[in-house]
Amino acid sequence: MNHVRNVAAGALVEVAGLEVRAKNRVLVTGIELSVMAGEIVSIIGPNGAGKTTLIRAVLGLAPPTSGSVRLRAGARIGYVPQRLVLNPNLPLTTRRFVGLSGTFQKGRRKAVLEEVGIAHVADSSIHDLSGGEFQRALLARALLRDPDLLVLDEPAQAVDITGQSELYALIERIRNERGCGVLMVSHDLHLVMSATDKVICINGHMCCAGHPDAVSQHPEYVALFGSEAARSLALYHHNHDHTHDVDGHVHDEHDHHAHDHTGHGHEHHGHDHKHG
Amino acid sequence: MDTIINMDDFLFRALAAGLAVAAVTGPLGAFVVWRRMAFFGDALAHSGLLGIALGLLLHINPFIGVAIVTLCVAIVLVLLRRKRELAADTILGILSHGTLALGLVAVSFMPGVRVDLMGFLFGDILAVGTTDLIWIYAVGSVVIASLLVFWRPLLAVTVHEDLAAVEGVPVQRVELLFMLLMAVVVAAAMKVVGIVLVAAMLVIPAAAARRFSRSAEQMAILAGVIGAVAVCGGLGSSWILDTPAGPSIVVAALLLFGLSSASSVLKAPR
Is residue A268 within a helix (H) or strand (E), and if so which, with residue range? Predict the structure, then answer.
């Protein structure tokens, strides 16, 4: 397997020239990405674009047919899979489900359940949780491993709209508090754009990558998601009322805005500047 | 008890064998239910007859023959399913009935050996000998020990394979271990309830245990207990009413399942 554990300084994971095939079909090709510690990178793209395949390659679950996936030596990964359906005939409490990934010190499970805000359902059956609570339980299970890199595949699926923005705010808070890297797949363009440092838009191949602003104006992005999506982002963009520092970063205001405005596709990080 | 042992040694051996088998089919059956593998267990059991033919042919203990054949069938099933060219239930249907037919034909070819076909198909618990008992207890203790040692990885893989793999569980090895356990348990359970009804001892006690369990461990242990009660009930009815022992055990398990369903209907507020 090309899941090599050796990577340039600073990066948690580096994907270079990645191609994954299934039988004779190319699922993804020519993918380049890296995630630094403390960085939120979002993968967007239409259905069947290979987003999950890319995630699986990063996790070492889908071996690359060419190219490489390199993890920083010793980096621990926390994984929140897509559409997890549990068999209701398997009785499990939330606490037990979260701790299934290993044996942990006393109190650790309670601590992560509190961190994601579901300590009150620790002793409930995992099957009785709401969509949002279940996604948080998955997140808790990933956090229990004290990950350097969090990999989330459509973390807000089966969560209602308010719950979605809360969940993205939680992911952002976890990043801020733990300083871990986050790599996530999403199709909620607006929510993703507002809470991410770097966007990678794929459709089998790389369409465009970079700062959310740059990506939202990119012709391939516009072609995939329609000018409506690009315009609505741009609209919020020009109506914003806060100030930026030289870099275009507004980290201090970011948290505050994440609570107030997520769901609007509001973009806080740098705007008309060029980003490398 | 003493009088029973003295008077009816065969009944004591039957009970000892039945209880041991129930103790392993219970917990393993819980996994079968959790992994939605009821028909997989059935297919493995059906291939058992081929294993008996192999045992007779090679003059080895039928236990070993059955364990070898069922393990091979299990691996073939896993490989075929991974190729995804046919639906899982189609593959199971082909292998389950194909191997049973193959076994019936193979056994009929055995020269000079009078094979008790009914005994193999529906169990012959009252004819359990001391050697059988030793085999059943040896297999039973190895299975229980493996379940205890590998409980967490087995459960983690059952809940979600990819998640377990990312968390460092050697998924393929755990999977192979599970197949191995299934193969030897099917071989051990065959003597008690027979090829045709082995899957019932895996599925029914576990399903009956579900209603009363709050944790995976509770369900596994309770399934073993329910299986043991079914063995006692089946043997009792066989002794008193002269019914066939293997099927009676399954009927007793079925009654317990019915009771558990009824109790949950009565308990449910809606």
Answer: none
The CA distance from A42 to A153, in Å, is 10
CA of residue A19 relative to chain centroid, distance = 21
Taking the Cβ of residue B152 and every Cβ of chain A, the question of whether any pair is shorter than 8 Å is answered with: yes
Whether residue B207 lies within 8 A of chain A, CB to CB, comes out as: yes
Three-class SS of residue A196?
coil
How many angstroms from the chain centroid is the CA of residue A133?
18
pLDDT range class, residue B268, cuts 50, 70, 90:
low
Min Cα–Cα distance to chain A from B166, Å: 7
**Contact yes or no for B163 and A61 at CB 8 A:** no
Distance CA B244, CA A98 (A): 47
In angstroms, the CA A212 to CA A204 distance is 20
pLDDT of A239 reads: 37
Q: What is the pLDDT of residues B198-247, one digit of tens each?
A: 999 999 999 999 999 999 999 999 999 999 999 999 999 999 999 999 99
Cα–Cα distance between A15 and A43 in angstroms, integer?
Answer: 13
Please state, in angstroms and as integers, the Cα–Cα distance from residue A33 to each residue in A20, A42, A82, following that order.
15, 10, 21
| Nearest residue of chain B to residue A123 (CA atoms) | B214
Tell me which residue has tokens 């890296």. Answer: A34
Please enumerate residues of A whose Cβ is less than 8 A from a Cβ of B. 56, 59-61, 77, 79, 81, 84, 86-87, 89-93, 96-97, 100-103, 125, 141, 145, 151
**B216 close to A (CB below 8 A):** yes
**What percent of the residues of chain B are helix, what percent strand, and what percent coil, each to the nearest 5?**
85, 0, 15
A31-41 pLDDT, tens digit per residue, is 999 999 999 99
> Residue A93 and residue B215: Cβ atoms within 8 Å?
yes
Q: Nearest CA of chain B to the CA of A141: how many Å?
A: 10
Predicted local confidence at residue A270, as pLDDT: 37
- Residue ranges and CATH numbers for the domains of chain B are 2-261 (1.10.3470.10)
Q: Which two tokens stand for residue A46?
A: 């239409």
- How far A142 CA sits from the closest chain B CA (Å)? 9
Query: Which residues of chain A does B216 touch, with a Cβ-Cβ cutoff of 8 Å?
Result: 90-92, 96
